[in-house]
Specification:
231 residues, alpha/beta, Uracil-DNA Glycosylase, subunit E, binds uracil
């Protein structure tokens, strides 16, 4: 680092002895201003990704779904068979339930939000992502969130909650408690309110918890209102 005269003067006033700086402090990079081209380049990076072995079994990558111009984001787990086939997130049975839930709230995936997953490739047999797969894919989700700068994030299911919050705990213990995610963005970081709820695939098997998911969506609507995303 080159020190300016004012910096040297300020340093000397601290009386910390000879000037030094942390050896391993990696220089932080500024993130590009979001543009259509930079969003397209994220898509290309996902389409070409071979960072974990899932590229060998996928039919195609699933970048996400919805609109990158929406005000908020939803994060799920990983593509299933139908998503792998169509290249779109949440288009199978779970996706149809998700669309009904969004619609009931007055939201629409093509206008209001972007839907991303922790993994961009289908794990064979729809097994849970391994920690290695999730960490190999983490940069893609982080880049999407950096670009989107969502005003709020709805986290669906335990895998997504574990990945984004770093806590492997039940949805029952997380739901109803708004969280704050810190997204590192080059020279700065930004904070996004987030809420955890049940994954729609879980709700298809546990109909009795749909009422709790409805409560969660209403609480999330409150967060969107506070963030001026809703009237
Ligand atoms: N489940 C997910 O978590 N994501 C999808 O895209 C589809 C099913």
């Amino acid at each position: 680092m080159n020190w300016s005269a004012a910096q040297i003067q300020a340093w000397e006033s601290l009386a910390l002895g000879p000037r030094w700086q942390m050896k391993n402090a990696a220089p932080k990079q500024a993130v590009d201003t979001p543009t259509k081209a930079s969003w397209e380049s994220l898509k290309q990076a996902v389409a070409n990704c071979q960072a974990c072995p899932l590229w060998q079994s996928r039919k195609q990558t699933v970048f996400g779904s919805g609109t990158e111009l929406g005000q908020w984001a939803l994060v799920g787990e990983a593509p299933g068979a139908e998503e792998d086939l169509q290249g779109e997130a949440f288009v199978g049975m779970a996706g149809q339930l998700l669309d009904q839930m969004l619609l009931a709230m007055g939201w629409n995936r093509s206008q209001d939000l972007f839907i991303a997953n922790v993994l961009k490739c289908r794990p064979p047999g729809n097994r849970n992502p391994t920690p290695e797969e999730a960490s190999a894919c983490a940069g893609h989700l982080q880049a999407q969130l950096q670009w989107l700068r969502p005003k709020a994030i709805l986290i669906m299911g335990r895998v997504a909650a574990q990945h984004l919050l770093g806590q492997d705990v039940s949805i029952a213990s997380l739901r109803g408690k708004p969280q704050v995610l810190t997204i590192d963005q080059g020279l700065q970081a930004f904070e996004v309110p987030a809420l955890v709820t049940y994954h729609p695939a879980y709700l298809l098997r546990n109909l009795e918890d749909k009422a709790k998911a409805w409560e969660d969506l209403n609480l999330f609507a409150e967060i969107l209102r506070q963030r001026q995303c809703l009237p």
